[in-house]
Amino acid sequence: MLQANRGAVTQIADHLTQGGYSAGKRAKAAAANAAPAPEGKLFYDVSGRSRISADSGDIRVRVSVNNRVVAYDSGSGKQVHMLGEIRRQEDTRYFALASRENGFFSGLPDEITEKISELDGQIIDQACPESLLAAEISERLGFS
């Protein structure tokens, strides 16, 4: 009997709930058809997709506020390469090159690693401040 009068029952239910009955059914159907949300941590590897457009600015190297050393396109502001980070061990700050050996998920391309690998472990202090490190990396990579 209910199945035969499903349209009338739905209409009465919508009238009593001010449309909430049908809206709830639509929401449940949409949720059932949607893909499940990913669980856990998501990691993105953007090293292979770092492209520079023809209208971009020049490439610069900087040490960010959170101690990451990056090469970025000054025209768009997009990061081109994550070169490494400034780490602290006891009272000593040093440059850690972005490599699997230093705990990074994806290392740098070989042509970049060859040019700046000597700077891995470089101590950052008064004699070699962050700005000097960024300038040295820029020079070795040909960005200056």
Question: What is this structure, in a nutshell?
Answer:
With 144 residues, this protein is of the alpha+beta class. The chain contains 4 helices and 5 strands, in the order ααββββαβα.
Keyword list:
144 residues; alpha+beta; 5-stranded antiparallel beta sheet; 4 helices; 5 strands; 21% strand
Protein architecture, described:
- The protein is an alpha+beta fold.
- Helix content is 31%, strand content 21%.
- It has helices at 6-17, 20-33, 110-116, 130-141; strands at 59-63, 68-73, 79-89, 92-97, 123-124.
- Strands 1-2-3-4-5 form a five-stranded antiparallel β-sheet.
- A hairpin with a 4-residue loop joins β1 and β2 (68-73).
- The chain starts with 5 loop residues before the first helix and ends with a helix.
Largest sheet: 5 strands, antiparallel
Spatial order of strands in the largest sheet = 1-2-3-4-5
- Strand fraction: 15-25%
Q: Report the mean per-residue pLDDT as an integer.
A: 85
- Unreliable residue stretches: none
Number of strands: 5
Distance between the termini: 82 Å
- SS field, number of helical segments: 4
Helical amount among residues, as a percent range?
25-40%
- What is the chain-wise order of helices and strands? HHEEEEHEH
Shape category:
rod-shaped
Q: What would you report as the Rg, rounded to the nearest angstrom?
A: 28 Å
Structural class: alpha+beta
